[in-house]
Specification:
The complex is a heterodimer of chains A (about 325) and B (about 250). Chain A has about 325 residues and is mostly helical. Helices cover about 80% and strands about 0% of the residues of chain A. Chain A has a two-stranded antiparallel sheet. Chain B has ten helices and ten strands. Classes of the chains: A mainly alpha (about 325), B alpha/beta (about 250).
Chain lengths: ~325, ~250
Amino acid sequence: MSGLRDWALLVLGVAVLAALPMVADNYTLRLGTVFCMYAALALSWNVIGGFAGYPSFATAAFFGLGAYTCAILQSAGWPMLPALAAGGALAGLFAAAVGGAILHLRGHYFAIASLALAEVLRELATKLEWLTGGGMGLNLPVPAMELHAQAAFFLHLMLGVAALAGAATLLLRGSRLGFALRCIQQNEDAAGMLGVDTRRAKTLAFAISAIFPGLAGGAYASWTHYIEPPDVFDVLLSVKPLVMVLLGGLGTVFGPVVGAGLLLLFEEAVWRSFLTLHAAVLGVIIVVLVLFLPNGLMDATRRLLGRRGRGAA
Amino acid sequence: MSALLRLEGVSRRFGGLAALDSVSLELGRGEILGLIGPNGAGKTTLVNVVTGVHTATSGRVTFEGQDITRLPPHRVARLGLARTWQIVQPFPRMTVAENVAAGALFAGGAADVASALAAARESLGFVNLADLADAPAATLTLARRKRLELARALAMKPRLIMLDEVNAGLNTAEIDEALALIRRIAAEGITIVIIEHLMKVVLGVSTRIAVLHHGRLIADGAPQEVVRDKEVVAAYLGRRYAERGAA
């Protein structure tokens, strides 16, 4: 059964990454942590963008909201994990509240409305100096650990967030809500006529797609010990998950994870040499993806293998 | 008599245009109502107002005694009111069985996805599509897509089905098949409203005919009476049909 196989794959992947600190240096652990963060963001975007077909650019809003919530609560003396959980919960509630207002928009209109969310929150974070430190940013307590232990701890923290996002995706896929979202993605009017409560399903999907970026934002803030508005509300945080999912395969379970890995490799290999050009390079990737690989690399590989298999038979 | 569906003075305006102009209509259990009228008469608007796609500008719609005038489509669907579309609306990248399972899961009372898929196979058997259950919906011919829509509506376990031109675009043999299917659905005890242009079909299956013209109900009665009604002949069937009828 493919469901069981996918759970096994998830557990295996988590186990391998969790064992990384035993063999790897701090640089590799840092890459592993970024990979887990990207995977969590991509898996989350896939819920609203892939399953429901709503092209959201709100990831940065949820990420920043989670980061600031976690940072502010930790500054107020909360321990890290409860502060982190509060960030994820607040991001989810925010998405559910805002979703009611923007999820009736379709296509480009929804994309633009969702893009505005991060901009509004970034302005707020900059203006509310008494709460957020404004443009000066916020410092977080540095855990009293030696460097390698710290790198290992934050890898495991981010891995936990990614694993939760992966588990949520697997649960969603076989569920009633997952089915409703697939119906909405393919024909929303017909879905409503068949008894799908489209507004409720979309709002839930949007909230789910906000919780894990909220958690990841909190983990990121704790990891870097310092956040500022342009950093955690960065529009690239909204664009990259979309690219990763398109790269790996829209609406699939592991496509977003594969895409996250590929984008990270790409960043490490290419962007170091083109620091000022990386946004342009990202744009080129998007165009190439949309034109040549509309279903992602996983689908393209599968089709290529299938063709070869048939050719041999 | 307790009507299954009742429209009381239902109007729907789009800007200055009255697509439906105070239409009152009652539908009893077990009837097959043929809803006819020239293009633009308001037939599809009537289906849309009943199913919650559009809200009536004024008037009241009740289904089994419950006011459904302002209910959203999914609530109407869950009450047991299904429809098919004039232009078929399958979920193209799902299999035929999954398409039908959606109806069973969200309106037909199936407990989970697995039992919805099982119920879907039953409905597909009823419309003779069982052997295509695992094919992607996008690969079906038009005639089969229309049957898929029927299966999807049936999986919702409806008490009333509104068929919006299920026969448009079909050839003669396919129409005969579709007619037989409609009769079998009626035999299951499901009330049917059928919107249709082909008089052969309307006269063949309807137990009663209602005629819309410019959004107004101009006739409502037994098929043979309605076709002879002067106003209907003038508005809809045309002089040549009337002369042939008289000969």
